[in-house]
Write a structure and sequence with these properties.
- 4 copies of one chain form a homotetramer.
- The first copy, chain A, is an alpha+beta fold.
- Chain A has 3 helices and 5 strands.
- Chain A has a 5-stranded antiparallel beta sheet.
- In chain A, β3 and β4 form a beta hairpin.
- The radius of gyration of chain A is 16 Å and the shape is elongated.
- Chain A starts with a strand and ends with a helix.
- The model of chain A has no long low-confidence stretch (mean pLDDT about 95).
- Chains in contact: A-B, A-C, A-D, B-C, B-D, C-D.
- The interface between A and B is medium-sized, with 23 and 23 residues.
């Protein structure tokens, strides 16, 4: 089952088209990934201090199906699809949370497949994901 | 040949990893698409007033190869790959402009394939791209 | 007593200095104002549809005392200081929520005094705040 | 005379009110300060590597007079008002560049007084501005 994280739409997220600016879904996806990691006991700031490594995004595929608007509440998911030695692939969705009809199926607004690689923070070179981290993820 | 647009990296673009935050390349790509359209005589605000339509991104594929940092100057390209009745596909790159060695080949930092669809701004429903707009694009 | 709203710091909020980028506190303050209004039953999107008006910021005074960092949780406050016919003044703070020591006094990171005016959304001209809105605020 | 820097308004800068989101003027002001420093031969990334210090904003006063919109071109100014041992005060304006009537006086959209302090980047503690830097500024 996918990890879920609520994201409220504020003025900062919208653009003059009256909808959420397309780049901001990458922010929402990143928030959900961070909270998914946190839910597994993984704090990225702490991890960096301990291991010198950070995750960076190497690939992203995004589909935008329907727009979100000011005051909407989204549910953003994160689900680990694949684990490699130096990278993870995470599938993510942004769904509209219809607060007036919580029992209705949620409408899919956008979805993404995000690959993140583990790099040494100083050199930005790819490195193996620490084994303790892989254990926490599995 | 691809349209080129310079983008300077400021504090706002970077994150605590010391590099440009991954979502911001979608901003840079959007700036270059806007300037490419402007170079063809197409102003989006004006177009909306005249036709009631706007472009929205429906798909994006992104690859992140190397990081950009504070004070870097990027060259961001936009090249029309495919024109449909209701959508355009644009290939874009962000390259590092080495100001100390302008004759060296530029290093590719990230690239994207972006599909944009034409929608009615009020309803957000897909519509045919106005023919005068298609003529300006070809 | 001031309205309080939690704000988590993500990668998107930080800059290459390793701290939260200064403009982002204005986003956090806006989120807290929006949630304060929502807590009083005031939805801005709905209000705009009903009255044609929106709030815009006309003045902001900001002091930055200490930096926030990745993974920090802030408590952002909003307190109505003054109500005029066409504007409101709101005092806001961003405090560090020390999750390890919840009984310690929270450290003040930044504070702002924000004046927002009521304008007609189409013309952007100042207008009187609707009386039903003023009643909800008092 | 004030330093001037052009800033074009893109979708990323606007919000659902159809105007530039208020926090983004702090980005524009920061860009103009960075370019003003660069025009004096001061590169912030280089300065940090050489001295270990960075500038951080400690105070900002902002007035918002008129909105900017998609496709507008702004001229953003930066003028040094006061130099202290550990801080600088800079006055900044965002003006609308009327491209159709370049000889008309430019309309003032917003203005700010920004105080920036010099800090050690590792400790974030205030420090004296390096004397070579002060010389470049005067």
């Amino acid at each position: 089952m996918a990890f879920e994280w609520p994201v409220r739409i504020y003025w900062e997220d919208t653009d003059a088209g009256g909808i959420v600016f397309y780049a901001n879904y990458l922010k929402f996806f990143e928030r959900a990934r961070t909270e998914w990691l946190r839910s597994l006991g993984i704090g990225q700031q702490q991890l960096r201090e301990q291991t010198g490594g950070i995750f960076v995004v190497t690939d992203a595929r995004l589909r935008y199906l329907r727009p979100a608007r000011l005051d909407d509440e989204l549910i953003v998911t994160a689900q680990l699809q694949e684990t490699g030695r130096a990278s993870l692939t995470i599938v993510q969705q942004a769904l509209l949370n219809n607060e007036q009809a919580p029992n209705q199926p949620r409408v899919l607004l956008s979805e993404g497949t995000i690959r993140i690689g583990w790099v040494d923070a100083a050199s930005m070179r790819p490195a193996r994901i620490p084994s303790t981290l892989l254990e926490q993820l599995s």
